[in-house]
Design brief:
Blueprint (H helix, E strand, L loop, with lengths): L8 H4 L5 H23 L2 H20 L8 E10 L5 E12 L4 E13 L2 E14 L4 E4 L3 E5 L2 E5 L1 E5 L4 E5 L3 E4 L2 H4 L9
Antiparallel strand pairs: 1-2, 2-3, 3-4, 4-5, 4-6, 5-8, 6-7, 7-10, 8-9
């Protein structure tokens, strides 16, 4: 089939066979599909992805089944990541919703999970969870335990998304798995 120089498709397709017309339509559809897919991956796609993540975060904020100003005893809150895998579990003796973005928890026992296995056990006597940033902070003495260490401090801030925290004031750490930390050759020497 010769290219249509006049710009009029009807005159170009006049002498073409049905197979050639079908082929031209098929190629046009493939080009259109590829072009629309490539265009969908631009800035609009990033914006849609960001909006989807914000909606997911909003759903997480709304999953706290506690009205503002009310207290609940024995509140258990599972916290899932974006993939739907359990990331943290909060067990509070008493929980109180302070406002839209903050949840106060007393006698909190928080467990973080790493690949569906418990990783850290965090105990806080009085703490506040920011539901937007997912940072939990405590102005009271807090303790973090893992199989190989225990650390305690007067104040603590912990990012539940990144699983990183900071402790201040009278921090004391006890390492229990020292043999695993030592190089192989130094264990034999006195």
């Amino acid at each position: 089939m010769l290219p249509c120089r006049s710009g009029r498709v009807r005159t170009c397709l006049r002498g073409a066979t049905a197979w050639q017309v079908g082929r031209a339509i098929f190629i046009s559809l493939v080009i259109f599909a590829i072009g629309s897919t490539a265009l969908g991956q631009g800035k609009g796609h990033k914006r849609k992805k960001q909006q989807a993540e914000e909606k997911e975060q909003q759903k997480k904020e709304d999953t706290v089944p506690l009205p503002i100003g009310h207290e609940a005893k024995g509140l258990v809150l599972p916290d899932y990541d974006l993939r739907g895998i359990l990331a943290n579990r909060f067990v509070a003796g008493i929980a109180k919703r302070l406002d839209d973005n903050h949840l106060q928890m007393r006698n909190l026992k928080m467990t973080t999970y790493n690949e569906q296995k418990p990783d850290l056990q965090i105990d806080m006597s009085d703490s506040v969870l920011d539901l937007k940033t997912r940072i939990i902070s405590s102005q009271q003495r807090s303790t973090v335990r893992r199989s190989d260490f225990e650390i305690a401090g007067d104040r603590m801030e912990f990012d539940t998304m990144k699983k990183q925290g900071t402790m201040w004031g009278n921090v004391k750490m006890t390492i229990t798995g020292q043999s695993e930390l030592m190089p192989k050759g130094s264990q034999d020497k006195p």
